[in-house]
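Entry type: protein chain
Record version: 2
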Amino acid sequence: GDRKAPSDMRLFEERVHCQFETLSFRLQNGVQREKIIKLFDGLARGTYGAVARAKALVQTDQGPWRIDISFGKIDAVPFDRDVADSRLVVIGSDLKPHELDRNVAACSPD
């Protein structure tokens, strides 16, 4: 016979079908580290949507850095070699690409 899934199992199955989107941004080398950290603060707070993960390898005004967000926690550490092609990748849902793009551009060196 037919077996029906318990109602709580159906809820779980519906929750795992989230649609994640990925946005990728090229960053200018020499961005101010302070500005990129501020951008990551906004990402972690949900200013640009529900961010599941964000990662940047970036050549800042204070040298090369790896900055990422996982589970809402920001981790920023010096990177062991220069970054030739600075990038930011954001994965999440209901992301706000235009606001992010504007604020990424604001991180450019003065």
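Comment: The CA atoms of residues 66 and 77 lie 5 Å apart.
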